[in-house]
Amino acid sequence: MATLVRRNQNWLPDIFNDFFDNNWVERVNSTLPAVNVIETANEYKVELAAPGLTKDDFNVHVDEENNLVVNVEKKHEENEKAKDGRYLRREFSYSKFQRALILPDDVDKEKISAKVENGVLNIDLPKLSKAEVSARKSIEVK
User: Fold this and answer.
1) d(CA 89, CA 16)
2) Can you give the pTM of this predicted structure?
3) Contact 103, 62 (CB under 8 A)
């Protein structure tokens, strides 16, 4: 039976890896950003925690199953030459996640808007009027 042995010229990073590669510490990439959903008389508002992200990091769309889908991909730009040290462990240099929320029937999908402000992605989902919702659901029985 072959034994896997970690070979590294510097023992310090292995101590950090052994400590952090266990079940005691939850992995950062296994969590999704927190989401708030607020309903007013005229709209729904979705707030998604987005610290350090810009509008270019987001792709927001409605999929074929009427889900609001938020994709995020943030790559760290290599700019380490000015640093005095080196990373022993690096977990926040790349972020990628997707959130999908089922849209209510009364959302006007043509008027959805999104913006990033103060570390929060804000998505406005205007509601259709009650008459528009009723007209859409009306099916004539013959």
Assistant:
1) 7
2) 0.64
3) yes
Residues 6+ apart with CB under 8 A from 60: 68, 69, 70, 71, 112, 114, 121, 123
Q: Which two tokens stand for residue 110?
A: 């043509």
3-state secondary structure of 111: helix
CA 141 to centroid of chain Cα atoms:
43
Which long-range contacts link 32-39 to residues 24+ away (Cβ below 8 Å)? 32/97, 32/99, 33/72, 33/97, 33/99, 35/99, 35/101, 37/101
Report the run of H or E that residue 68 belongs to, with start and end. Answer: strand 67-75
Each residue of 47-89: pLDDT tens digit?
999 888 889 999 999 999 989 999 988 876 555 555 677 777 7
